[in-house]
Amino acid sequence: MGPQRDVFDDLVLEGAWVDGLVDGLDDSQWETGTPAPGWTVAHQIAHLTMVFSLAEKAAAAPRAFGAVIGGLKGSFDDAVQAGLLPYLGNGNAKLLDQWRAQRAATERALSALPPERIVPWLVRPIPAGVLAAAGMMELFAHGQDVADARGRAPERTDRIRHVAGFVALTWDFGYRSRDLPVPERGLRFEVTGPSGAEWVFGEPEADACVSGPAVDLCLLATRRRHRDDLALSASGPVADQWLNIAQAYRGSAGPGRKPGQFTQRARG
Q1: Alpha helices in 120-213 (DSSP H)
Q2: Of the residues 2, 50, 141, 242, which has the fewest C-beta atoms closer than 10 A?
């Protein structure tokens, strides 16, 4: 299984990695389009800042979190778009400052809690350690978009274990977002970390199994790569179907990525 890693420490390191992608960019680079249609590098960082702001409130001010969520209007996707507005249009230097300040505040708020402390979140209450893993999933996904826009290949580490575990916890999201019936039993995930460590998540006795590199699993479930460009295997029809609909976040799935779109960087 490999040694356990501290999710709060790894959240800090993953945030620093994303920060390194945007440190020193000029205005034209901030406005570079990313693989997400209509989203520039600035949109990606604005989204991360918004998500981290919500996570800080969930950890440190649950009532304030509830008030924000209760005041949202329209669909989930509408709320995501509206959440970008406070961070866009004030200049990229200010956006970078906001991102850095918010990230630090969120890291402090989460690390002040025991990992098992239950906090409110968007779909259901979750432990603080799982919320930190959700933050890492966001950093992984949107950091990948920024890296793709900049032509950079991320250097992945075993911090990915937290993201892979979060994918296993949210295995049903792809079904729910498409109004598909959720299988009675979950899946088993047998994945290999960048160091070669082997990890198992999900239901240990499940017949449906997805196996392969942990990075590929996370790229698939964040919809940053198409399954055809990843080295993932499915055991059984349920697992095979899951590879087509995998999604580690709620809201609409979006168009995802096309087969062959990142052939040279499929394992980024």
Answers
A1: 128-150, 160-169, 173-177
A2: 2
Residues paired with residue 192 on neighbouring β-strands, in sequence order: 198, 213
DSSP state of 11: H
Instruction: Sheet containing 198-202: give its strands across.
Output: 198-202, 188-192, 209-213, 233-235
Domain with CATH 1.20.120.450 in the chain: 7-150
Closest by Cα among 196, 126, 193, 194 to 166: 126
Task: Return the closest-CA partner of residue 52 out of 19, 4, 30, 29.
Answer: 19
In the chain, residues under CATH classification 3.30.1050 are 160-257
- How far, in Å, CA of 140 to CA of 142, rounded? 6
What is the C-alpha to C-alpha distance for residues 198 and 195, in angstroms, rounded to an integer? 9
Q: Per the confidence metrics, is the pTM higher than 0.85?
A: yes
What DSSP assignment string belongs to 60-103? Answer: H-HHHHHHHHHT--S-HHHHHHHHHGGGSSS-HHHHHHHHHHHH
According to CATH, what is the number of the domain 7-150?
1.20.120.450
Tell me the backbone φ, ψ of residue 15, rounded to 5 degrees: -65, -40
Query: Percentage of the chain with pLDDT > 90?
Result: 83
In this predicted model, what pLDDT tens digit does every residue of 107-151 receive, in sequence order?
Answer: 999 999 999 999 999 889 999 999 999 999 999 999 999 999 999
> Which of 119, 122, 40 is closest to 76 using CA atoms?
122
Q: Does domain 160-257 have CATH number 3.40.50?
A: no
